[in-house]
Amino acid sequence: MKRLLVVLATVLLAFATSPAVAAPANSTGPYTPSNRPGPPLSVPAADLRAAVTCTPSAYGSDREVALLVPGTGVGPSEAYSWNWLAALDQADHPYCTVALPDGSVGDVQESAEYVVHAIRYAYRISHHRIAVIGASQGGVTPRFALRFWPDTRTMVADYVGLAAVNHGSSQNDILYPEGNGPAFGLQLRTTSRFIEATNSERETFPGISYTSLSTTHDQFVTPDGTTDLRGPASRVANISLQDVCPDNRSDHIGIGTSDPVAYALTINALTHDGPADPAAIPSSVCDRTFMPGIDPRTFASDLAAFTETATATIAGAPIHRVEPALKPYVLARR
Fold first, then answer.
1. Is residue 268 part of a domain?
2. Cβ-based neighbours of 1, under 8 Å, separated by 6 or more
3. Residue 232's CB: how many other CB atoms inside 10 A?
């Protein structure tokens, strides 16, 4: 029973965060400088290619292709087919998805290589800079990719995190105080070296617009503001759903799967220069129950399938006693 409760809690928080700690300006500590070229990808090229799927409209697109990165325990189908992909199809907006290995329950550093390839691929086929959208763990994995593969920064126009684990999870601290957890659970603790490395030197990079969305009703990402990223206000927007709609009740799962305000802010970020602008969201969005793409008739079953898949994947994850070691390329001395 204890194991089941841990699994269920982990499914819901998969990506909770704690307050940010900024690195001193121009300091990398033990980590490689952010301008050092990234290493060759170690994952077989065939596996990387097979993980990316794009709509025909993404090829040579005249719009900002959206690359959707799933969170813990689910693939693109379970995470996005019944909500975000359906909405983007309705809007005729081009997109790609990337499937991460083992349902994102392994070493996040390996998942990041898939994201690096997906960014490069989407940029190459579209001939334009792209947008990266990720929920929970799927929000921090792209940031690790951007930190340690500098070439990807010129390929990304927008980053949108939906309750992303930007500074580790206090809930993971509670669940795995002395290790004995899945790889991702240990890497997403507030004291993990993975999180420290991801945020080393700087949290955001010039040329990319960052939108980090949160909800005050997130039962696992606490306290408020723990998903926030640091950077110039002209290029970094940290927005609570309640900043736009004070009565919004979406929780941690809702912000990434069905919330109409999160969707409106994301589309706003993708369709103008700069991060999302809360003032541009019409008040009528606050009266909606679901984001576009959601079928109210199947919503309950779709959400149940999402939760069941995540639960089973996390329950089957190998247990580690210590956090996976950082890859040599992460360290200044390698």
1. yes
2. none
3. 9
The letter for the amino acid at 216 is T
Q: What digits encode the pLDDT tens for the residues 127-148?
A: 999 999 999 999 999 999 999 9
- Calculate the CA 136 to chain-centre distance: 5
Q: Are strands 156-162 and 209-214 parallel, antiparallel or unpaired?
A: parallel
The torsion angles phi and psi of 276, rounded to 5 degrees, stand at -60, 145
| Amino acid identity at 141 | T
Nearest to 19 by CA among 169, 174, 198: 169
**Containing domain of residue 71, as a range?**
2-18+31-330
pLDDT band at 178 (very low <50, low <70, confident <90, very high): confident
- Tell me whether residue 24 is in a domain: no
Total domains, the chain: 1
| Spatial separation of the C-alpha atoms in residues 105 and 186, rounded to whole Å | 10
User: How many C-alpha atoms does 99 have within 13 Å on its Cβ side?
Assistant: 15
Which CATH number belongs to the domain containing residue 308 in this structure?
A: 3.40.50.1820
Q: Token digits for 175?
A: 């669940």
Tokens of 68: 């959707």
pLDDT tens digits for range 274-325: 999 999 999 999 999 999 999 999 999 999 999 999 999 999 999 999 999 9
**CB burial class (10 A; 0-12, 13-18, 19+) of residue 159?**
buried
Strand partners, 211: 160, 237
Is residue 26 situated within a structural domain?
Answer: no
